[in-house]
Amino acid sequence: MTAASCANPAARPQARVRLRPTMSSDIEFVLTLEGDPANLPFITPWERTQHEAAIRFPDFRHFIVEGGPGLDAVGFVILIGCRSQHQSLELKRMVVGNKGAGYGRAALRVAKKVAFDDLHAHRLWLAVKEGNGRAQALYDSEGFVVEGRLREAVKVAGGFESLVVMSMLQSEFAARRGQGLEMHA
Predict the structure, then answer these.
(1) How far is CA 141 from CA 45, 166, 176, in A?
(2) DSSP strands (E only) in the chain
(3) What pTM was computed for the model?
(4) What CATH topology corresponds to 2-178?
(5) Beta strands per DSSP E along 44-117
(6) Helix or strand or coil: residue 113?
(7) In the chain, how long is the greatest CA-to-CA distance?
(8) d(Cα 182, Cα 178) in Å, to the nearest integer?
(9) How far apart are alpha carbons 168 and 140 in whole angstroms?
């Protein structure tokens, strides 16, 4: 759907990624990424049928993140609320397999562009587990603002974990674009 070579003036060049709609034949890859022990502490995996429904349901956008020189599948992104009358989209899930290669940041930038430019969102929000400092730092550095915490909202082994709610408004995205921090339409 959208291809980009994302540049970050303050850091090393970003990985090249594109998002393409997930197909039924991609579900096994998605389930494998969700089941990876490196990802499990940070997400609540879905059943196969939930992913299959997300591919078909018009309010969802389920994407495969393709990256690297061969644009191989490296992750996936799910947006929810794409037909919301409130123009408030949720970044439900972003999982990348090759951590530290820049695919997550690049995929997030493309997802923001899709949300604000293609789907005309007013607000893009997410909830991240409080213990996922790496993701929180990424979202913060990409312009998301902490709105609050959902205390002990997710049951995990040994108890409960809180979620940090973060968001970005279209006006904030536009301001970042004006500063050269976001992709252009």
Answers:
(1) 26, 12, 11
(2) 2-5, 16-21, 60-67, 72-80, 88-96, 123-129, 145-156, 159-169
(3) 0.91
(4) Aminopeptidase (3.40.630)
(5) 60-67, 72-80, 88-96
(6) helix
(7) 46
(8) 8
(9) 10
Per-residue pLDDT tens digits for 40-98: 999 999 999 999 999 999 999 999 999 999 999 999 999 999 999 999 999 999 999 98
* Cβ-Cβ contacts under 8 Å for 14 (sequence gap 6 or more): 5, 6, 7, 8, 102, 105, 106, 109
The residue type found at 135 is A
* Assigned token pair, 184: 């252009």
For residue 89, give both structure tokens: 């989209």
Residue (of 145, 82, 60, 74) closest to 107 by Cα position? 74
Burial class of residue 56 in the structure, from the number of CB atoms within 10 Å of its CB (0-12 exposed, 13-18 middle, 19+ buried): exposed
Question: Does residue 164 contact residue 182 with C-beta atoms inside 8 Å?
Answer: no
Measure CA 18 to chain center. 13
Q: How far is CA 44 from CA 3, 12, 77, 95, in A?
A: 28, 31, 14, 11
